[in-house]
Every structure is written in C-alpha cells, then in structure tokens.
Amino acid sequence: MQIEPISSGNLPPGFDASTCRSVYVANIHPQVTEPFLQEVFLSTGPIEGCKLVKKDKATYGFVDYFDRRSAALAIVTLNGRQL
C-alpha cells in the first residue's frame, strides 16, 4: 500500500492543504475489504468514513478523518505498509 498526500502543484485555487483530513491509499491488494481498511486506519485516529475503489487492475481508497492530525499521522506511520 502506498499513502500519498495530495501534491501541492495539483491543488485547485483556494485549497488549504493544512485543513485536509483525507488520505489517498494506493496499491491495495484486491482482496482487501472496506471494513479491513477502516480497521487498519483506525489505529491513527477516529475515522469519519472510508471508500474502497476497485477498477480493472487497480484497487485504491480514501480514508476521511475527523481531524487533520490523524490524517497526517496515518501518512507518516502507515505509508509503505502492505495490505
């Protein structure tokens, strides 16, 4: 799994990255479920919701936290973990 913050060069005008509470999760194994993804990311803070997207040969997801500190902690602590 690869977790990425949104690159500042691709942000829309007026977007404030310091208030972002969402984490993009890439390279997820196709057999991973939404409840499992949520369970893994709960380790860094309370989650507002998560979405798993399965398309052809790619599986990725989005995890939405209630606060940006939890999102930042997820990026730091879970990046590179295999799912």
Automatic annotation (TrEMBL):
Source taxonomy: Eukaryota, Viridiplantae, Streptophyta, Embryophyta, Tracheophyta
InterPro entries in UniProt: Nucleotide-bd_a/b_plait_sf, RBD_domain_sf, RRM_dom
Keywords in alphabetical order: RNA-binding
Any one GO molecular function term: RNA binding
Organism whose genome encodes this protein: Gossypium raimondii
Pfam families: RRM_1 (PF00076)
Stretches assigned to coiled coil: none
Domain RRM: 21-83
Protein name: RRM domain-containing protein
Superkingdom as given in the UniProt entry: Eukaryota
SMART domains: RRM
